[in-house]
């Protein structure tokens, strides 16, 4: 009965809303906790329902999930990570590592990508796959993203001041950052503060980010490009971008997700799919970057395809700013 009522509520919320400037469609996700099976206090029931709601969102949204005990442990872990993450920046527990991106033909360093890492004094290394979703859920992704971008730009400027040319610095931008109305101004402010030429910065944005509000995304990207920096689509091929839209985006590069490199040595279909993606990017006049290259066969296949740049453990692992300078020499 609870499930039926919840689905009825979600259906009502999903009906079109006629507003002054047009029709608006909404969707909702619901989490359900029950008294007294799950808790006997209103505050606890709401907390558990909230944990179930996040599960519903991760399962594709516009649905409902009942709370179970495994979610309580996950909710407690999320709270633990949230609390520790709020202290990580002032305590200098976060750092950036840098992974070279190399020319597929000659192996020379073309640029570096900044990758965020967190080492907690008690819990040790915490994977970005664990703390980035928490940062997004708990509203920490904006200050965290700003810190990453500022720190990366400072590092490139420091290298340039020392006469060290590491190419461009690629920085991943979260969907929350990109959709902020003041995002462009924030980037402009960081470049001004650090004195870094915009041509030395590349922002990597996922497909799903730019497909959420296409016209607004295009406007933001045009402003960023007008500043002189470069834009890349990260994890290309894993999202749901429309090719009709893709050609409208002011892009410089497509970054092919590592998933498309798996089995290309043994599976003709996988090889054909990767070939098609490279040809698509080239037909759009974009430079191709393949990430997650783990062996010689993958590297050679990409070289034959004339995929311009490659990145992965086959070439270099992410290292500190001091170590990565040695790769560029």
Structure description:
With 329 residues, this protein is an alpha/beta fold. It contains 13 helices and 13 strands. It has helices at 2-13, 42-58, 69-88, 128-137, 141-161, 175-178, 183-194, 207-210, 214-227, 243-246, 268-283, 296-304, 321-328; strands spanning 17-19, 22-24, 30-32, 64-66, 94-103, 109-120, 124-126, 168-172, 201-206, 230-236, 253-256, 287-290, 309-310. The strands form three sheets. The chain has an eight-stranded mixed beta barrel, surrounded by four helices. Strand 10 (230-236), helix 10 (243-246) and strand 11 form a beta-alpha-beta unit. Helix 2 crosses helix 3 (69-88). The protein is globular.
Please outline what is shown here.
This protein has 329 residues and is of the alpha/beta class. It is built from 13 helices and 13 strands.
Shape: globular
Give the oligomeric state. Answer: single chain
The run of helices and strands is: HEEEHEHEEEHHEHHEHHEHEHEHEH
Largest sheet: 8 strands, mixed, barrel
- In percent, how helical is the residue content? 40-55%
Number of helices: 13
Q: pLDDT below 50 for ≥5 consecutive residues: which ranges?
A: none
Question: What is the gyration radius calculated from CA atoms?
Answer: 22 Å
How far apart are the termini? 68 Å
Q: How many beta-strand segments?
A: 13
Q: Major sheet: order of its strands?
A: 5-6-8-9-10-11-12-13
What would the average pLDDT be, to the nearest integer?
90
Main attributes of the structure:
329 residues; alpha/beta; 8-stranded mixed barrel; two-stranded antiparallel sheet; globular
Write the layout of secondary structure elements.
Layout: H1 2-13, E1 17-19, E2 22-24, E3 30-32, H2 42-58, E4 64-66, H3 69-88, E5 94-103, E6 109-120, E7 124-126, H4 128-137, H5 141-161, E8 168-172, H6 175-178, H7 183-194, E9 201-206, H8 207-210, H9 214-227, E10 230-236, H10 243-246, E11 253-256, H11 268-283, E12 287-290, H12 296-304, E13 309-310, H13 321-328
Helix pairs in contact: 2-3, 3-4, 5-7, 7-9
